[in-house]
Amino acid sequence: MSGRLEGKVALITGAGSGIGRRSAELFAAEGAAVVAVDINETAALETVELIGLAGGVAVAQRADVADPDDTKNMVARAESEFGKLDVLFNNAGIMDSSDGDAISTSPETWDRTMDVNAKGVFLGCKYGIPALRRAGGGSIINTASFVALMGAATAQIAYTASKGAVLALTRELAVVHARENIRVNALCPGPLRTELLMKFLDTEEKRRRRLVHIPVGRFGEAEEMAKAALFLASDESSYVTGTEFVVDGGITAAYVTPE
Ligand SMILES: NC(=O)c1ccc[n+]([C@@H]2O[C@H](COP(=O)([O-])OP(=O)(O)OC[C@H]3O[C@@H](n4cnc5c(N)ncnc54)[C@H](O)[C@@H]3O)[C@@H](O)[C@H]2O)c1
Asked: Could you give the maximum distance between any two Cα atoms of the chain, in Å?
């Protein structure tokens, strides 16, 4: 069998749900050994079980990506379990339901959102890049969002700022580490039919309001993000670094959407 990630070791954060889980399953199906990281250990273990049932190789690791010790340990686990790290997918993220506009959002909500979504990417890279160097290079994928590229009237100021930080981080990391054979790209999903967003858009009215702006007329699927992440993880994207890989059903291209 020759999968698109054959022989590679991939660490995925937020692997207990949504994009992270689907990516863990797809990466394993394409031959990668996967470290499925999540703050929710039960969820990470479920992902590992799904991969095992499909004949893939994976281990679960509990970590809060905002915690330096946890992130250090998750990278160490990849090397101790599988001998190296080739792909680092910093995907874990939160969207707090109390996140709103500048006036209503509490400093606590701001701090936790930035800690997980932005500092989590920094810490993943802080400990992951030395491991990628030891492997002779690799691919880092940071999950940002289309909201880092456009303003939304549905206010979520901490989340939006945190995803803007992910894009800025990604660009600098890509430039700094380019000569080390380490590629760094951001994945910018549009609105998805995952738990994270459906909890935030918790009324039919809020969902309809968002759908109006999507040219393809539907929310995206985690599977569709996993396929894009697979391309960025694999050697097929060997000349791709520092990009904002937008997978959004056409939102950022639209001025007016079709009826
Ligand atoms: N769902 C969307 O519409 C959408 C759109 C754009 C971007 N994104 C981004 O995609 C990424 C994945 O989102 P999803 O939709 O799959 O969400 P999800 O809520 O389905 O999954 C997120 C996972 O991350 C885990 N997690 C949360 N905080 C963590 C922490 N501190 N440490 C480790 N794990 C943690 C959760 O337990 C969960 O398993 C996030 O970064 C999110 O911001 C999502």
From this structure: 55
The per-residue pLDDT for range 100-138, each reduced to its tens digit, is 999 999 999 999 999 999 999 999 999 999 999 999 999
Residue 2 maps to a domain: no
pLDDT single digits (tens) 3-56: 999 999 999 999 999 999 999 999 999 999 999 999 999 999 999 999 999 999
Q: Name 176's Cβ contacts closer than 8 Å, sequence gap at least 6.
A: none
Q: pTM, whole model, 2 decimals? A: 0.97
Q: Which two tokens stand for residue 98?
A: 């109390």
Q: Give me the domain span that covers residue 72.
A: 9-241
Q: CATH code at 17?
A: 3.40.50.720
Residue 257 lies in a domain: no
Total domains present in the chain? 1
The catalytic site residues sit at 159
Ligand 1 close to Cβ of residue 145 (< 6 A): yes
165-200 core/surface letters (b: 16 or more CB in 10 A; e: else)? bbbebbbebbeebeeeebbbbbbbbbbbebebbeeb
Nearest CA to ligand 1 atom 23: 14
Query: Is 258 a member of any domain?
Result: no
- Out of 13, 17, 22, mutate this one to test ligand 1's pocket (max ligand atoms within 8 Å of CB): namely 17
Residue 156: inside a domain:
yes
Cα of 90 from ligand 1 centre, angstroms: 10
188 lines ligand 1 (CB under 6 A): no
Q: How far is the CA of 91 from the centre of ligand 1 (A)?
A: 7
Q: Nearest C-alpha to atom 42 of ligand 1 is from which residue?
A: 93
Q: Residue 92 C-alpha to ligand 1 middle, in angstroms?
A: 5
